[in-house]
Design goal:
single chain, alpha/beta, Quinone Oxidoreductase, Chain A, domain 1, Rossmann fold, about 30% helix, globular, binds NADP nicotinamide-adenine-dinucleotide phosphate
Length: about 300
């Protein structure tokens, strides 16, 4: 089969289209014939060697797909630990879900961002109806999904933070009430922050969180990991900080994840959340997809057509 292989550690240049043997399904796995593979920031980190859950090279990146089960032809979406940039991938059957009602041409970019946003808001932050949510990198894959999930869960107000005027307009289209630049003051206190850019963005935004508010730290796309203040500082603020990784949660507690994911997937099935697909490239252009995602040039999700 054709697959994109990370041949060594490095940037987009390490990705090569190769002919490789099809995977075999292990116990409790199903084979999925891939239609679309989602491209995620974690895939960039995995080829750079900075993603804890990634195998050493050579490996096939790709953490989410849409497609059909090889046995039975059922239309599905799936999360996989690796291997999505390929014609066939083996997936743990607990993380393969019926794609009924979803467009397979788009849904390959849905599960990872929708479930990350859902867990950040509903499980980590325990967001309540009416609360004000602020999200960074708000026009990106996870960011735009977070706006939509916050809306679907009944957020009172959603404030988007994004790096350009075009991205701020896009964030408003996804349902944000207000979109600001990184160095703009936050115009009102917020209850929940979903932060994925890192320092110094996190440090500044923390001042806008009201007492009993929560900040969920899910990534550091800007390259500088967040510095969490000490107990005395957080106690004086009365603010909780919750670093969260969907991949770590899933590998540590797979059955709990399958359970907590269910209401997040329902948001997709009911059409309440439709992560926007900004760009679809053919599989052989995986390196270009990585280059664009890593250079802040994309909005919404990037997909590979397999
Ligand atoms: N914890 C989890 O489980 C989890 C799961 C999925 C993703 N994530 C994290 O969520 C973040 C977003 O992931 P994504 O796949 O949806 O990507 P993305 O948001 O579509 O793209 C990354 C965005 O980050 C912002 N950014 C700021 N500084 C950047 C820099 N120096 N280089 C590149 N981008 C920069 C850019 O938006 P602006 O121009 O608006 O700043 C850029 O568009 C990443 O940090 C990722 O690691 C975490």
């Amino acid at each position: 089969m054709r697959a994109v292989v990370a041949t060594r550690l490095g940037g987009p240049e390490v990705l090569e289209l190769r002919d490789v043997p099809e995977p075999k399904a292990g116990p409790d796995q199903v084979l999925v014939r891939v239609r679309r593979a989602g491209v995620n920031f974690a895939d960039l980190s995995s080829t750079r060697g900075t993603y804890a859950q990634a195998p050493p090279p050579p490996f096939i990146p790709g953490l989410e797909v849409s497609g059909q089960e090889v046995a039975g032809e059922r239309a599905v979406i799936a999360l996989v630990p690796t291997g999505g940039y390929a014609e066939v991938v083996a997936a743990d059957r607990r993380f393969v879900w019926d794609a009924e009602g979803l467009d397979l041409d788009l849904a390959g970019g849905y599960p990872l961002v929708a479930l990350t946003a859902f867990h950040a808001l509903a499980e980590a932050a325990r967001m309540r109806r009416g609360e004000t949510v602020l999200v960074t990198a708000a026009a990106g894959g996870v960011g735009s999904a977070t706006i939509q999930v916050a809306r679907a869960l009944g957020a009172g107000r959603v404030i988007a933070v994004a790096g350009s005027e075009k991205k701020r307009r896009f964030a408003i289209e996804q349902g944000a009430d207000l979109a600001i630049a990184y160095d703009d003051p936050v115009p009102e206190p917020v209850d929940v922050v979903v932060e994925m850019v890192g320092q110094p963005v996190f440090e500044r935004l923390l001042d806008s969180v009201r007492p009993l508010g929560r900040a969920v730290l899910i990534g550091w796309a800007g390259g500088e990991i967040q510095e969490i203040p000490g107990v005395l500082d957080l106690r004086a603020r009365g603010v909780g900080v919750f670093p969260f990784s969907l991949g770590a949660y899933r590998s540590k507690s797979p059955d709990a994840f399958a359970r907590t994911a269910a209401p997040g997937l329902e948001l997709l099935r009911k059409g309440l959340v439709r992560p926007p697909i900004g760009l679809v490239l053919p599989l052989e252009q995986a390196a270009e997809a990585h280059r664009l995602l890593g250079s802040r040039e994309t909005m919404g999700k990037v997909l590979l057509a397999v």
